[in-house]
What does this fold into?
Amino acid sequence: MAKLVINETNTLGKIEPELYGHFSEHLGRCIYEGLYVGENSEIPNVNGMRTDVVEALKEIEVPVLRWPGGCFADEYHWKDGIGDKAKRKKMVNTHWGGVTEDNSFGTHEFMELCRQLGCKTYINGNVGSGTVQEMSEWVEYMTFSGKSPMADLRRENGSEEPWTVDFFGVGNENWGCGGNMTPEYYGNEYRRYQTYVRQYDDNKKILKIACGPNVDDYQWTDGILNTLFRYRPSGQPLLLDLLSLHYYTIPGPDWHHKGSATQFSEEEWYNTLKKALYMDELITRHGAIMDQYDPEKKIGLSVDEWGTWFDVEPGTNPGFLYQQNTVRDALVAGISLNIFNKHCDRVKLACIAQMVNVLQSVILTDGEQMVKTPTWHVFRMFRHHQGAQLLESAVTGVSETGTEEYMVPEITESVSCKDGIITITVNNLSMENSKDLEISFAELKNPEVIEANILTGDDVHACNTFEDPNHVEAKAFEGCCVKDGKIVMDLPAASVVEIRVK
Ligand code: AHR
It folds into this structure.
């Protein structure tokens, strides 16, 4: 039997709501069709944003949205996306399918989407092919309330009041698609660009995000931080608030064989989960380098691209990165979110890639149809961790499970407390075996389960299709009860479970 021991008297730090963030790029059908259909669409919308999708996203309490990319960000020129839509400059989206981008979704539309979602804004600026002036003017356009050329232009375009930019990314993947830079070169560019990301309103600090490493590129992390910390005149504030980390769970051996999203063997199940678990090591090791420069942990890690990346759905445009989403994706989400919670001392932001119709999406659309994926259900269950205090917890009595090559722990978990309610999220990683689990508390002798939900499937390959949209969904978990002051259950195989206790 596995035992989860919770010390509810020991809080370990706040789980920032932004750990549950999302990413939306001008890629495939994420923005166009997925989120934005335009004011004249027959698909019900408010100011162009499709109503069904916005309503579904509100249910998972999206805390922050990153835009416009991704690789697209370093090719995006924001002035092309403002003003009269009929006159907006068109461009070729060279990264993603070579399609024509008509720029009908731009800054005003993004801010409107965030307004409807009630979420924070994370704008990613262009370093790779943009200028310091362009970036500086964008910030002025969005955030300056006084009279200035850019603020006046914003008013001309219909927005009297400035918006709040909560996070600003200075470039994306500048080691790759964002300019193929070295850490030292980017570090120096970052120093310059970020200087002109001006703070126009003292009450709304724009948190600056520097481009961090790809996966296990520890040299990049050290190189950037060295460049940013090396020369610091006394009194100079920190030049960055967060450093990004991008890591995708890709089961296949290379980019041409990433593996099918829906057809996978037992071996691939465990390989995928093992790769998702690797996030823990990445955060620990990049965090250790950050500790050398920033022992007080003033700089957050922003895992602003994570999730599964499989071969595209057969018959779809390879440049659109459209994939289905199964119980396996739910497990990857549950594993990753538990890892972020446990590292909330350093991880301050995370964005799953991507919100709709691209990679590990929470929503899929087809014309006027929409489905919530198994990953959506995990975000819905885990939303109770947002803004909560992480509690000390440890699980014993678990062994490893899997295949000879790919072994994973049977169970992963995290626990938090908010408003007197303890939220426990547990994953059973075994593809076939259930596991007896007993949960006990340091002082809580009579726990009351106020809610328990489970996501699992009749088959681990199960997914939600437009024909059968509710095939996989979280349901009330009847299988847990309180016995002698402990919560006991038989945790079904391949499941993600949320239990709320007071
Ligand atoms: O999410 C798809 C792409 O993956 C992003 O554009 C890029 O930043 C990353 O390589």
Observations:
- The chain has a mean pLDDT of 97.
- The chain has nine helices and 26 strands.
- Residues 266-293 form the longest helix (28 residues).
